[in-house]
Each structure stands twice: as structure tokens, then as C-alpha cells.
Write a structure and sequence with these properties.
The chain is of the alpha+beta class. The chain is built from 5 helices and 15 strands. The protein has 2 domains: about 140 residues, Roll (Nuclear Transport Factor 2, Chain: A); about 140 residues, Nucleoside Triphosphate Pyrophosphohydrolase. About 30% of the residues are buried.
């Protein structure tokens, strides 16, 4: 999800070079450009098309941006797929229509692998009259509103979760294989939901003990981020706000708890072989750097 966030930051800055660095050499881009249903294959062709778009049009949302992203989430039915929901507005840089902007909303799917976008495709929402669902054309820079997206039968609110990068004296990191969703059957960092009346540090220590059998010293916060997981129809299945801590073992014995399938010690540089998510790998890398500086 961080790659997708970086992509939209680069797009709003009209930074074609930064966008180019996020695409894989063999990427495929489909229906991404307003009024252009073309399919572009390969980084060179995609970047040339983005350069043409940036040269011809400018962002026309309030504040000058091109895209306002309301949600970025993983899709549970496909490894590495991310969905971003957005509204956009852009105006021609030259010509009689330079003072007007064309607005739309929609969503995009990204397949991200090894930190690069392999596939990028968009769905544009438009009205029956051929105009977009934000009212067609409007003065550039005028504030717009986004139609609410229905979210039937999902969680009522986000859940606060705590997790940990547990680093041993030998520099290994503790991983657990999840028994339940989200991430069932996948290796990840230990952690779980905070309980009512429980402090964040206490919750982290409890979850690690329950899942790994280890008693830990809870150290500083490594990162705070959200994890939103959608089903194939775009409905929210899970929404966690996660607080990950750097922890050191101080007792206990490494063993799988009842809600995980297995536990293991892994080399922080070899987590890709375990199919640990890119976000978890980045959190571990930051924790290792923090540990060196302590």
C-alpha cells in the first residue's frame, strides 16, 4: 500500500520520474487516463503517456492537486492487489478550455510485487448522460464533493491492533503463521486486537506471550499505520489501526499459541522467501535500524 501512496504523491506533484521509478519494466496500464481506454505495456510506453498527460493537463482540485484518494486497501482475493478509491479533476494547460476542469471519481487496482507496480487499471464512474458523476465540467479549483460509497455489512468502526518486531540477541526476528483471517496461512509479525481498558504496551506484551510463548520487554514504537482489507466486491472486511513496537525477549519459551499455526525465527534480510508482506518487511527493517542506534 505504501507504493500506491507514493504513486499518488508523485502524481499530484507532476513528478513523472518518481512515477516511473514505481513501475516494473514489464508493467501493464489499462484505462488509467481520462478519455483514453488504451492499454500501455512496458515502463517506457507508460512513462511517455504520463509525460504527455502532465504536459497537456494540470491538476484542478482545490489546492492544485490532480487526485484526492479517499481509501487505499488490500484486496483479500488476490496476493499483492491494492485498491485505491479517488476523485480527480484536471484542466487543459492551453486553449479555450484552460479555465475549465473535467472531474470524475472511480477506483484503481494495482498489482504490486517486489515494491513495483506490475499492473495498474482504473474504473471511471460516469453518469448516463456521458458526463462524470461529479457534475461534468466546473471552474478549475472549485471544491467538489465525492458521492458516498456504500459499504454494506462491514465492520462498524476500525479496530486498534498492537504488534511487535521481536528481535533476539542474535538479530533474528520472530514470525508467526496466522491461523485466522486476515492473512490466514501467511507468515507475519505477532500481534492482535487491543482489549478494553488495556494500555498499548500491555496489549503488545500479552499478544506476544499468547502467540509465541515469549515474555518481552516492550520498547519504542516502530510505526503506526492502517490496514484495510476489502472483499472482491470492494466491501470492507477488516480495518485495523496498528501500532508496532520494538521488543526484546526476556523469558519464556518460543512455541506456537492456540491462535497461530506455527512460530519461527527468521533472518530479517530473508523475509521475502516467507512471503511476508512488504509493509511488514519495511517495519522490520526500520526496527533493525532503531535497534542498532540504541
Amino acid at each position: 500500500m505504501d507504493v500506491v501512496r507514493a504513486f499518488y504523491r508523485a502524481l499530484n506533484a507532476d513528478d513523472v520520474d518518481a512515477m516511473a521509478a514505481l513501475y516494473a519494466a514489464d508493467c501493464v496500464v489499462e484505462h488509467v487516463f481520462d478519455g483514453d481506454d488504451g492499454v500501455y505495456e512496458g515502463r517506457t510506453g507508460v512513462v511517455e503517456r504520463w509525460a504527455s498527460e502532465v504536459a497537456a493537463r494540470r491538476g484542478a482540485l482545490a489546492g492544485g492537486g490532480r487526485v484526492d484518494v479517499s481509501r487505499i486497501a488490500g484486496i483479500e482475493t488476490g496476493w499483492g492487489w491494492v485498491r485505491a478509491e479517488w476523485r480527480t479533476a484536471a484542466a487543459d494547460r492551453d486553449g479555450a478550455s484552460a479555465g475549465l476542469a473535467r472531474a470524475a471519481s472511480g477506483y484503481s487496482h494495482f498489482w504490486v510485487e517486489n515494491g513495483l507496480i506490475r499492473r495498474h487499471r482504473s474504473i471511471w464512474r460516469r453518469g448516463d448522460d456521458g458526463q462524470n458523476d461529479l457534475g461534468g465540467r466546473f471552474p478549475a479549483g472549485q471544491a467538489t464533493t465525492t458521492p458516498e460509497v456504500g459499504l454494506p455489512s462491514g465492520p462498524a468502526r476500525p479496530v486498534v491492533g498492537v504488534g511487535a518486531v521481536v528481535l533476539t540477541d542474535e538479530g533474528q526476528v520472530v514470525l508467526v503463521k496466522r491461523r485466522h483471517e486476515p492473512l490466514a496461512g501467511q507468515w507475519s509479525l505477532p500481534g492482535g486486537a487491543l482489549e478494553l481498558g488495556e494500555t498499548l504496551e500491555a496489549g503488545a506484551a500479552r499478544e506476544i506471550l499468547e502467540e509465541t510463548g515469549l515474555v518481552v520487554e516492550v520498547g519504542p514504537v516502530v510505526e503506526v499505520f492502517d490496514r484495510i482489507l476489502l472483499d472482491d466486491d470492494g466491501r470492507v472486511r477488516f480495518h485495523f489501526v496498528l501500532v508496532d513496537y520494538l521488543c526484546r525477549p526476556r523469558g519464556g519459551r518460543l512455541q506456537a499459541g492456540s491462535d497461530v499455526e506455527a512460530v519461527m525465527l527468521a533472518d530479517p534480510d530473508g523475509l521475502g522467501a516467507c512471503r511476508v508482506t512488504e509493509k511488514a518487511r519495511s517495519v522490520v527493517a526500520r526496527a533493525v535500524e532503531m535497534q542498532r542506534d540504541r
